[in-house]
Q: What sequence folds into this?
């Protein structure tokens, strides 16, 4: 393991001295924490973490190494990585290399050995904020100057930076039953897989796909994925979704796709103080009264009244799911005046990876929606 | 969904005495349940035979029955109280088995009692191997290949099919009783034979071996709306093959990817649904093949378990409390998370720290027992530690065990050569991690360690990390802040560093503190700091930021008793918890320090602050320092947690820590022979003739002078470790050899005249410096010589007159004054002839404090805590905490009799060759727990105590009698009485002759050494094995160290243990049993709640 010193500095001046982990160099991003105790490989490769310096509250990271199966995209997206006790040897029958090597080979700058709990408490009290990690600048004041030069997360349009360059198709497993266009705002590999398992042929299109390109696929349903950045900046997907809702296309959105849906319905979005990032988040399905333990990774949320319905040009919208921890909107539902569900979305991650599978039923609900049974 | 309104009263069944596999974790869970149910307005009825529990304190239930947990007695309680519902999932296997028996016999239906928590069907689906297997297969998962067997023939057939080695698992037993690993047919016949017997359904599972696989456990919680959450994952560092109770375990799981973890999570949820545990907690165990990840579901417990207690302490999520709430109708999202207050219980705790649990064994008490660890649990206690990483948590856990040989050491060379060490670590055994570290020191490679232990390479690497850190400490030119910080981050104690650097611990501490390197205190908050925590549940770590809040209220620190061990268990935790309650009420901020996850004291609800920390001098000093920075500290209590805190008292005082109550100097005075002798002499109190010796020659001289028999023991012991009674010079030589030490002893050996035929008396008293409150006077049923912890006793004393009690009062007061007690003291006396000898005095809470408190309806430990902080007995009487007048020595003549009976763990151990260990009682304590029988007369109370201790006295049948010559006279009358009561008497030749000459018909039985008779007449051992006898009376010839097979009756007694036939080994015990049998035969034994007894006890 490295014994090279590294420094983490937050924009409010708090700094933590530790040891270099992964690549050496310098990196900047929004400091956030995630509380998942498993699934660091999925977390690192989740495009929603683009431009973020991710702190793992679980102290031991890297124990199971890195394998060839659990990546959620083709690269590590986090801007920087903060852990307390990195593993020296990986141990798992699927592991093909160590996490340290993986971080190095992808040039991900990290820091280890710091009081991650103190950092987490700080972010909880002061909110997510800009930060920098460096192995070359070890003077906190100097690094702070650089941190303050970085753009803030609010107002950042990042989907365009993570989306696929070219459209591709994930074929249905078994008999093909439906065709769905999935707009890639930072999609995770498990999402099309969960659809494909259910007989859906998924056409993954770039975030910039036009209405014509979408309609050219002749989809049974539309899907918009998770992704990084401030939903207020994403004009195109919102406009596109409005057009599609106008045409009565069944819609399912996850995370960023929930925020886009909210904006398309005329609702606002706002930045949470420190977000929801973890795989233990309780969400109440208000229709059934049941609790789902969900995987979450979001810094922004939809601003909607928890009670009652909202008249929209496409039908009646309502909040379908709420966070039991802090009452943040975790799901939206659009119903026609005949009571039929037309579109829905959730702020959390039913595809899990990492995380529990409690919400996998939502993919079935998408099928029902496309069948007109929802 | 709000709480149910269709039920008004709930019966809660506890788990009875502490035994291996079922310890105070069920007091913790039961106490939580009772508290919840009362808060919710239910009438709570409780049955538990264990008086040392917090749950049996009268304020935790509306009606508390300290009665045996047998279907007969519980039915009596049901008949009397008519509860609407029965909650049996929080009292371990004991409660569950009682509930199932009451269901099967139709009692629950007859009285309309609804089983809440888990239904009988669910319990049976979960515990019945075959139905469980089907459920797992239905969910698309695998169980180990196995065959259910009901006979030995079935078992042999299964072995042919599956091949060796095989695992034997009996159905419906707790703590893995009767289970084991069979490598060949001989093993299999022995283990499966015992297993078939141990199972109440005569059912064992014969299973393919998954030895060496990784082992995991998930704790699951479900509510009636079908919300299911996983509370905690636990990974065993020791792979499959060792009972999880005997394994080193870690939470959360360290070596799972998310995909593997989610498979386990999905299966756990599927299983709890399919089994149909409607509400409450359960745990599910898994094995994973490290080579290919093949996953096997091992088993589930459809109830709160030992692991649930561990998981609760590890996460801050109170499983039993929530289980009780969901059992009465709440859903998880309606229940707030205590720790954050703002978030609900319907979530999954996340940890930003690592928890390690290590078992504590007591093989030194059973030298003949096979110490190899198997699937049959043998540990008597455990310690848990929390650290910010594994190395820190592991090293803290090992030092929490309070066994110097448990922690890693780099002093001197490794104990032996690499080859022997590598061979040794193949055998799972107590202290294996230490041997592994020695092997690493001797040059073992990680591959060698893995090959020989199958411990996951990640855990093995952590051992190397610790070792490499030690080498860095050794190689450093001096102790720099960097090197100290590094070592501390990996859990090294000052003592370990001192060893490595050849310094003293005090010097290392001095350097460290001078450099400002001190631990910070983090908080267990269930959510990895995502939300603010309101509950100060702390652990130390050498990290950056401390979370100890400042305070203005003066604090009292209470040092707990550490891991359970024989001689120091739940009784001491009881006193600590009571002190906390009393001092909280008196306006102090109470701060508990302890490392035992099973206890009520380590519930974050018990005290104002909880430090889950090792009880070593270093760890306690740092907590005291941190709390002194936080606010005023009124004092530290060391008197209630047994020997553990007492052993720290002097060093803490030397470091300036304000110890309240009896001073360390006074504690020393009572333990130091010469000084204490002077106290007695000054007060004119006689003690048996005694002397001390520093060599065998001296010992013989002393013994010669005071005359045999003598009691021989090392100084400074708890639980009579190494104590023996010897009747001759030869026996003395042998005893000294067993104590070790060669020609010159390191510590003095104490030699006392042993008073044959004396009545032993135990006294608990409270002294405020001026006035004595005589808490209780207990008369031992067995004669002096049996350790007081193993002896049964009666309170009030059954044969002592008022004059005797007055003498005891005066003597106790003189000792308290002479020693300088402020708080509790326990004195042991022997009454021989008319002389009251003082055997020993301990200026601390004793094991009997809870028993005395229950029997006299007086909260002795609470009063003691107040006295330690300056209250007088007069003030406490005025306040109403103590009775206005009188005390435990002046109970009214019609006060009920309380009988305490010890519970022995003999059935848990086998010798290397597979036989039971000997059951003879002696001066070394070996019991794990106790029960109380409570009733109007001694006979009934004794009968209840035996039933509670799972040794119910028979109502009729065959009694076998064989006694030592010196006991023959005393045996005649009680045996005659048994014959009159309709028992058939069997005896070996000598005893039978004596009986016949005294007019008692006795059938002569062949001794084992005589072999079967010419016409196939069985020997006594065969008769016992065949289950033909109902009661065995066998007193040994002489009393020697347990386990020595040369004793004549050993085979009889061990066969009795194997068949669970009551076996009495003293004539006094026989006399008591006869009274109990008479009482039973006369019928009409009733049950009565503590609350009902209180007016009679207090005479109001």
A:
């Amino acid at each position: 393991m490295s014994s090279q010193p590294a420094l983490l500095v937050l924009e409010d001046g708090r700094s933590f001295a530790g040891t270099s982990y992964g690549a050496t160099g310098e990196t900047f991003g929004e400091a956030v924490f995630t509380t998942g105790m498993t699934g660091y490989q999925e977390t690192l490769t989740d495009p929603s973490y683009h431009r973020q310096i991710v702190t793992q509250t679980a102290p031991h990271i890297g124990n199971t190494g890195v394998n060839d199966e659990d990546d959620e995209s083709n690269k590590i997206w986090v801007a920087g990585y903060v852990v307390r006790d990195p593993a020296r040897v990986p141990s798992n029958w699927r592991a093909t290399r160590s996490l340290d090597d993986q971080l190095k080979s992808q040039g991900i700058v990290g820091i280890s050995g710091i009081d991650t709990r103190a950092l987490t408490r700080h972010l909880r009290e002061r909110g997510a904020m800009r930060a920098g990690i460096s192995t070359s600048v070890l003077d906190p004041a100097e690094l702070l100057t650089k941190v303050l030069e970085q753009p803030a997360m609010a107002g950042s349009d990042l989907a365009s930076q993570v989306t696929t360059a070219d459209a591709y198709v994930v074929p249905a497993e078994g008999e093909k039953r439906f065709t769905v266009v999935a707009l890639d705002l930072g999609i995770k590999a498990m999402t099309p897989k969960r659809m494909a398992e259910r007989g859906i042929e998924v056409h993954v299109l770039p975030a910039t796909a036009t209405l014509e390109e979408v309609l050219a696929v002749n989809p049974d349903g539309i899907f918009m994925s998770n992704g990084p950045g401030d939903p207020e900046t994403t004009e195109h997907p919102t406009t596109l979704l409005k057009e599609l809702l106008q045409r009565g296309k069944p819609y399912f959105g996850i995370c960023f796709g929930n925020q886009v849906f909210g904006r398309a319905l005329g609702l606002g979005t706002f930045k949470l103080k420190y977000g929801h990032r973890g795989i233990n988040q309780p969400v109440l399905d208000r229709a059934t009264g049941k609790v789902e333990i969900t995987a979450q990774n979001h810094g922004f949320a939809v601003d909607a009244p928890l009670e009652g319905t909202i008249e929209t040009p496409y039908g009646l919208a309502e909040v379908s799911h709420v966070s039991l921890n802090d009452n943040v909107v975790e799901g939206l539902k659009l119903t026609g005046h005949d009571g039929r569900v037309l579109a829905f979305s959730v702020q959390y991650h039913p595809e899990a990876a990492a995380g529990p599978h409690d919400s996998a039923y939502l993919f079935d609900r998408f099928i029902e929606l496309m069948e007109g049974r929802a | 969904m709000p709480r149910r309104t269709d039920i008004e009263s709930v019966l809660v069944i506890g788990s009875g005495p502490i035994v291996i596999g079922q310890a105070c974790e069920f007091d913790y869970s039961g106490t939580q349940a009772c508290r919840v149910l009362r808060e919710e307005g239910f009438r709570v009825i409780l049955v538990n035979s264990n008086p040392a529990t917090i749950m049996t304190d009268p304020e935790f239930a509306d009606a508390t029955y300290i009665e045996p947990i047998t279907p007969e007695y519980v039915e009596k309680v049901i008949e009397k109280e008519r509860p609407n519902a029965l909650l049996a999932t929080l009292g371990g296997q004991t409660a569950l088995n009682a509930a199932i028996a009451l269901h099967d016999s139709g009692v629950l239906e007859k009285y309309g009692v609804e089983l809440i928590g888990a239904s009988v069907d669910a319990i049976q689906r979960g515990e019945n191997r075959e139905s469980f297997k089907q459920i797992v297969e239905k969910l698309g998962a695998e169980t180990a290949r196995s065959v259910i067997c009901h006979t030995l023939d079935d078992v042999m057939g299964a072995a042919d099919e599956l091949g060796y080695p095989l695992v034997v698992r009996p159905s419906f037993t707790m703590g893995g009783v009767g289970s084991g690993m069979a490598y060949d047919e001989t093993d299999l016949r022995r283990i499966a034979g015992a297993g078939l017997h141990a199972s109440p359904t005569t059912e064992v599972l014969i299973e393919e071996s998954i030895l060496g696989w990784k082992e995991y456990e998930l704790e699951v919680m479900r509510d009636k709306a079908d919300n299911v959450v996983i509370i905690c994952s636990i990974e065993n560092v020791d792979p499959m093959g060792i009972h999880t109770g005997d394994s080193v375990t870690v939470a959360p799981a360290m070596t799972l990817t998310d995909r593997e973890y989610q498979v386990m999570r999905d299966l756990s949820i599927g299983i709890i649904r399919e089994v149909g545990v409607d509400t409450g907690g359960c745990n599910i165990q898994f094995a994973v093949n490290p080579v290919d990840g093949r996953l096997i579901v091992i088993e589930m417990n459809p109830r709160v378990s030992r692991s649930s207690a561990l998981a609760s302490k590890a996460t801050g999520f109170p499983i039993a409390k929530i289980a009780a709430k969901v059992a009465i109708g709440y859903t998880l999202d309606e229940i707030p998370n205590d720790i954050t207050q703002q978030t609900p219980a319907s979530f999954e705790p996340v940890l930003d720290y690592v928890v390690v649990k290590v078992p504590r064994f007591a093989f030194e008490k059973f030298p003949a027992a096979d110490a190899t660890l198997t699937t049959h649990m043998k540990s008597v206690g455990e310690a848990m530690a929390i650290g910010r990483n594994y190395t820190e948590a592991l090293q803290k856990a090992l030092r929490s065990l309070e066994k110097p040989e448990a922690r890693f050491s780099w002093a001197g060379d490794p104990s032996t050569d690499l080859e022997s060490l590598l061979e040794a670590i193949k055998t799972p055994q107590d202290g294996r991690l230490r041997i592994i570290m020695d092997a690493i020191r001797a040059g073992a490679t990680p591959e060698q360690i893995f090959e020989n232990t199958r411990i996951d390479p990640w855990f093995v690497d952590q051992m190397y990390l610790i070792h490499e850190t030690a080498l860095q400490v050794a190689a450093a030119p001096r102790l720099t802040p960097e090197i100290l910080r590094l070592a501390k981050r990996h859990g090294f104690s000052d003592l370990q560093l001192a060893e490595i650097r050849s310094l003293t611990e005090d010097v290392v501490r001095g350097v460290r503190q001078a450099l400002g390197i001190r631990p910070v205190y983090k908080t267990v908050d269930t959510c990895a700091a995502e939300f603010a925590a309101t509950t100060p549940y702390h652990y130390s770590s050498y990290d950056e930021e401390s979370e100890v809040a400042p305070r203005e209220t003066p604090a009292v620190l209470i040092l707990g008793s550490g891991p359970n061990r024989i001689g120091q268990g739940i009784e001491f935790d009881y006193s600590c918890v009571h002190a906390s309650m009393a001092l909280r009420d008196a306006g102090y901020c109470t701060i508990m320090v302890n490392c035992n996850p099973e206890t009520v004291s380590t519930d974050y609800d018990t005290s104002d602050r909880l430090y889950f920390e090792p009880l070593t001098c270093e760890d306690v000093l740092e907590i005291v320092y941190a709390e002194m920075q936080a606010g005023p500290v009124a004092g530290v209590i060391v008197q209630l947690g047994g020997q553990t805190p007492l052993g720290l008292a002097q060093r803490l005082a030397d470091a300036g820590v304000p110890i309240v109550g009896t001073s360390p100097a006074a504690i020393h005075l009572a333990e130091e022979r010469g000084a204490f002798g002077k106290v007695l002499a000054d007060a004119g109190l006689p003690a048996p003739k005694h002397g001390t010796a520093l060599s065998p020659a001296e010992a013989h001289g002393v013994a010669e002078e005071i005359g045999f028999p003598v009691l021989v023991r090392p100084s400074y012991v708890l639980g009579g470790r190494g104590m023996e009674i010897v009747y001759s010079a030869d026996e003395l030589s042998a005893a000294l050899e067993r104590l070790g030490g060669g020609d010159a002893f390191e510590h003095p050996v104490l030699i006392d005249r042993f008073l044959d035929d004396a009545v032993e008396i135990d006294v608990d008293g409270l002294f405020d410096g001026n006035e004595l409150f005589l808490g209780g006077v207990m008369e031992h049923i067995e004669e002096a010589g049996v350790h007081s912890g193993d002896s049964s006793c009666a309170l009030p004393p059954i044969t002592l007159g008022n004059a005797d009690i007055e003498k005891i009062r005066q003597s106790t007061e003189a000792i308290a004054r002479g020693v300088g007690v402020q708080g509790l003291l326990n004195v042991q006396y022997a009454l021989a002839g008319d002389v009251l000898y003082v055997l020993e005095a301990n200026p601390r809470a004793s094991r009997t404090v809870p028993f005395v408190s229950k029997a006299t309806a007086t909260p002795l430990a609470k009063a003691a805590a107040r006295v330690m902080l300056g209250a007088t007995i007069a003030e406490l009487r005025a306040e109403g905490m103590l009775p206005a007048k009188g005390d435990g020595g002046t109970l009214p003549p019609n006060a009920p009799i309380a009988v305490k009976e010890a519970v022995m763990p003999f059935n848990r151990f086998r010798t290397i060759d597979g036989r039971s260990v000997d059951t003879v009682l002696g001066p070394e304590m070996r019991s794990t727990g106790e029960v109380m029988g409570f009733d109007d007369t001694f006979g009934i109370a004794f009968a209840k105590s035996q039933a509670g201790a799972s040794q119910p006295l028979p109502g009729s049948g065959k009694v076998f009698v064989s006694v030592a010559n010196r006991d023959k006279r005393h045996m005649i009358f009680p045996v005659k009485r048994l014959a009159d009561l309709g028992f058939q008497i069997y005896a070996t030749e000598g005893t039978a002759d004596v009986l016949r000459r005294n007019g008692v018909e006795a059938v002569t039985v062949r001794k084992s050494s005589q072999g079967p008779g010419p016409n196939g007449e069985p020997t006594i051992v065969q008769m016992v094995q065949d289950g033909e006898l109902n009661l065995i009376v066998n007193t040994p010839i002489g009393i020697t160290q347990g386990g020595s097979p040369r004793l004549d009756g050993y085979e009889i007694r061990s066969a009795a243990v194997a068949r669970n036939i009551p076996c009495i080994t003293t004539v006094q015990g026989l006399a008591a049993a006869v009274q109990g049998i008479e009482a039973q035969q006369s019928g009409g034994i009733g049950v009565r709640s503590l609350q009902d007894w209180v007016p009679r006890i207090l005479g109001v």
Remarks:
- Residues 954-1081 of chain B form a domain with the Rossmann fold fold (CATH 3.40.50.1380).
- Chain B touches chain A through 56 residues (CB under 8 Å).
- The first strand of chain B starts at residue 9 and ends at 13.
- Residues 1038-1047 of chain B have pLDDT under 50 and may be disordered.
